[in-house]
Task: inverse folding
């Protein structure tokens, strides 16, 4: 199935929901204009569709092979990766001083979506490299930056994150890998890491591993973990003492190697400290917002791809006669109300998750680029608040939409050749990696709601209310029940927020933790609905100004569908948070066997 | 991962929700006593756990091979199937006159659940054989019954349903396979069928295909389709003119061969008419309730298996320290509120879907066994009403629960060795085959709500209200908000039912069709909640009578969790049906691209 980059929807969301134009006007994006950004999006969309998308099925079929520690990726992957870096796509958000183009996270996010729509297994590699670049920029010594940044920015080399160990998954405090100072500024690293994405591959000549390990005298727990840069090949060209000891046979993203990495079989792998000793987790957290957002974008990406495939199938596949069909022939199944509901659900969830991700990206940009410190701090908190929602909601949407996509295909959806099933298999990793969605929900409730004593989340809810107020004032019947439905969702969110904030600030965590996942969903329904309403209001204004593009009417219809058919779940979620969650711990007696 | 048959939960649901004891008291089940039924369940559970469950992973890994038209199943499958039939399990519900044990559908349903928990790919084969037995009993000539029933009842031979053709999936009117009368009572069948489960295999010496085809003079559409019995080997031992031309590479149930069948390469396959000419679809419909219920049971089954696996993992896997944990060590993740919420959701959905399926089975039994014709007819309508809910809700639950199961495993869930991912892959077919869940929802709204002018559904809702009233009168605080939450769900269902009935009776189908899927879910939330409440009320009564089994308290806790955390979605579904659905057709403009 071909992929068509939805550039106009992407650009519209960037501009009219995430505030791209405002950021340009505010002078935050330097020379970048709206026109130039749209040109870049067009180019990226072409590359994604023409070069990467055709590899997706191959990657799934061939997977990767591991022979004598050497991994070979699927046919065509190395060439595509090389072409992609040579076209400058890896360097798009990178620092200008090291060959990057210094373009905004918002613009790069739109590109990340397209790379991952084309192929999630391809797209996850650069996400890790971009995260490592950030860590190096923020925490690397001048020497390390000089030695590694340029190659990483260009994509000549890739990078990995080595966090997980068999006993240390969500709980990084349990990390056991060790690092011993040699005395010359280097460290000897020993340990085993699992689930290391692109830990070994044949796309580039070198791989730069970022590895969490403990110094000999480190305190126990998370405050005794340091971050090290450990290259596959050392600066003198010698092979470092590390190897890929195995790869996982996974449900999906077969094209992406998931490696068990062994450091220090012999004398110990040589590494360099990144940031301060015992502050490794803080170094990780500085790049966490971006990496989590990027995984959220994978959810958007796979949802978009699954939607496109299901829609194309529904337009082609004919069965029976739809109600009210004209003429004698059979109807494409897209004419059936139940199929329409499925496809609209797919599209609306995809659009809402895209909007939330792009808003998060815009907040990250402002956190870095606002001239005033107070504005930067506010934007940073907004980004922190939205990041877990962007990650968890979007990746849940990826799975839900891909699953509906299988359903729309009927029996053909269950047959691997069709490709619909691959999207579901691929999508299923995103709610797990880069912090499970349960961890995201807990992060949102326990750490993000209390930001600035709750002012950050209250400001976000106030912005949603502003959108609802604008909707209320709209005279056109096109919006139907959009305004009251979204108002109800925002008010549910407001009440649930107050309830959880009280519990968290009073340090009564259990009930708040039990309500965290429904709360994140509720937040996303209200925020997603408000974001689609922002888009719809802009579309309505343009129509009033004579814009005859039918896409504008579609935006209003999609917003209304979301409000009337999806956001209506808000009340039930509020009930779960306000009353159901308090019983979860006691109900756990039912888990005895 | 081992499977433990949840015999006590199964027996409790049969007895205290589905009315097994009442049916025994009413004399509907002959000599069968509660004790004997429980003994049979124990035996079935042991067989499923000890003999079938160990094959499940092998079946997934090896799949089946097709060489020169001959299919070989995975190692151990043939032996297990033979042992299973020799133990008499295939004959359990079969007619006594042909070697069957004539046991109730309700008891067999519990067994079907267990076979499919052990292995869905194994369990689907007998479901088809049992369906064919029903068709033969109802529509076969004495000759055909004499020739085939005994072997099918014992499981010495298996049977298939040959419905689907490339252009005829949900729309059977488009069937093109042809049947020509020879003049000697046989017919020559020609055509191609796809997605034929166990269309070819090495488990038995013969396979009996039931094939839908058109006679030469048949009218177009569904009223021109006839049903034929077409054996792989003819009574004289000659090979019939039919073959397996290919097998599908599927997302899951790899152990089950899904075949393309070609009839009539040469002189035409020899077949015999089942039922009347051009009435083939009616013949199919007589066995539809049972087959759809059986697929619903597959949903229950895979949900149960996924839940058991996730629970075992959550008790073993340790990460960090849970809130309020005593002592110094790490906590099993089952002690974390978010994980508890996940596991309780899995268990509650599984229990609710089991209850609905067993209630459906009990209604089918009464439709066949009630002495009075009016009672039989009422039971038949109740079975007809509940069947699409049992099929669609339970299979959706299968997918949802299996997906949560992957999530509970974290990264390990995405690795195929763990087995959690297989459950998700296997589960995904059940919402598709035997009538997609969209078709089930449409069947529920368009054909089942109007039964007896709406009296059938109104009686069902009245029974739910009776349960709510009993809950209201319960003094114990154990139930928390169970009663008001379930009352709200039942009242939402009542309003939505009235709304849809009005549309359907007024022949305004489009809006009703758009609301069908949310309506089916709403029905299941109210019915599932009421069923769990029936179980909880029985448990509470037993506790009051001195029963100290902790399982009784668990049943109340699970019911309360369902009401407070799952049934609360009812209001949002009602909103979708009453207001959102009316806009779906207009919103379809958003699907243009």
Result:
């Amino acid at each position: 199935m071909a992929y068509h980059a939805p550039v106009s929807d992407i650009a519209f969301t960037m501009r009219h929901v995430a505030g791209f134009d405002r950021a340009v006007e505010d002078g935050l994006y330097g020379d970048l204009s709206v026109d130039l950004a749209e040109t870049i999006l067009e180019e990226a969309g072409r590359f994604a569709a023409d070069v990467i998308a055709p590899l997706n099925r191959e990657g799934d079929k061939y997977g990767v092979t591991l022979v004598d520690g050497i991994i070979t990726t699927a046919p065509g992957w190395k060439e595509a990766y090389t072409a992609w870096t040579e076209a400058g796509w890896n360097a798009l958000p990178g620092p200008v001083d090291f060959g990057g183009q210094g373009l905004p996270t918002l613009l790069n996010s739109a590109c990340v979506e397209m790379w991952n729509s084309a192929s999630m297994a391809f797209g996850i590699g650069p996400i890790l490299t971009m995260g490592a670049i950030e860590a190096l920029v923020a925490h690397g010594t001048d020497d390390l930056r000089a030695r590694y940044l340029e190659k990483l920015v260009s994509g000549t080399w890739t990078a990995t994150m080595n966090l997980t160990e068999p006993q240390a998954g969500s709980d990084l405090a349990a990390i056991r890998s060790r690092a011993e100072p040699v005395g010359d500024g280097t460290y000897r690293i020993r340990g085993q890491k699992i689930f290391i994405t692109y830990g070994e591959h044949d796309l580039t000549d070198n791989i730069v591993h970022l590895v969490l390990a403990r110094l000999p005298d480190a305190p126990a727990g998370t405050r005794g973990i340091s971050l090290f840069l450990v290259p596959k090949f050392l600066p003198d060209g010698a092979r470092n003492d590390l190897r890929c000891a195995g790869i996982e046979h996974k449900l999906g993203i077969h094209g992406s190697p998931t490696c068990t990495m062994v450091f220090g079989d012999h004398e110990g792998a040589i590494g360099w400290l990144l940031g301060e000793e015992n502050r490794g987790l803080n170094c990780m957290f500085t790049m966490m917002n971006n990496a989590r957002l990027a995984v959220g974008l994978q959810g958007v990406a796979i949802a978009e791809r699954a939607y496109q495939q299901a829609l194309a199938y529904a337009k082609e596949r004919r069965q029976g006669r739809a109600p009210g069909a004209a003429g004698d022939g059979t109807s494409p199944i897209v004419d059936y109300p139940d199929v329409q509901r499925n496809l609209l659900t797919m599209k609306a969830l995809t659009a809402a998750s895209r909007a939330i991700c792009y808003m998060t990206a815009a907040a990250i940009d402002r956190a870095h680029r606002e001239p005033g410190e107070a504005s930067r701090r506010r934007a940073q908190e907004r980004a922190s608040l939205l990041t877990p929602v962007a990650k968890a909601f979007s990746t849940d949407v990826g799975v839900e939409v891909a699953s509906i996509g299988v359903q729309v295909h009927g029996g053909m959806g269950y047959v691997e050749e069709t490709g619909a099933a691959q999207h579901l298999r691929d999508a299923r990793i995103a709610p797990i990696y880069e912090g499970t969605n349960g961890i995201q929900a807990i992060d949102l409730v326990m750490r993000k709601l209390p930001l600035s004593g709750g002012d950050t989340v209250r400001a976000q809810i106030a912005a949603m209310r502003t959108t609802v107020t604008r909707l209320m004032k709209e005279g056109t019947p096109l919006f139907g029940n959009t305004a009251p439905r979204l108002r109800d969702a925002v008010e549910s969110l407001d009440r649930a927020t107050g309830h959880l904030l009280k519990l968290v600030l009073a340090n009564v965590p259990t009930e708040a933790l039990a309500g965290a996942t429904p709360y994140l969903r509720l937040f996303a329904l209200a925020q997603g609905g408000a974001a689609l309403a922002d888009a719809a209001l802009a579309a309505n204004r343009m129509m009033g100004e004579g814009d005859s593009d039918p896409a504008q009417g579609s935006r209003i219809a999609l917003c209304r569908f979301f409000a009337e058919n999806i956001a209506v779940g808000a009340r039930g979620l509020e009930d779960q948070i306000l009353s159901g969650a308090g019983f979860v711990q006691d109900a756990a007696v039912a888990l005895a066997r």
The mean pLDDT of chain A is 97. Chain A touches chain B through 99 residues (CB under 8 Å).
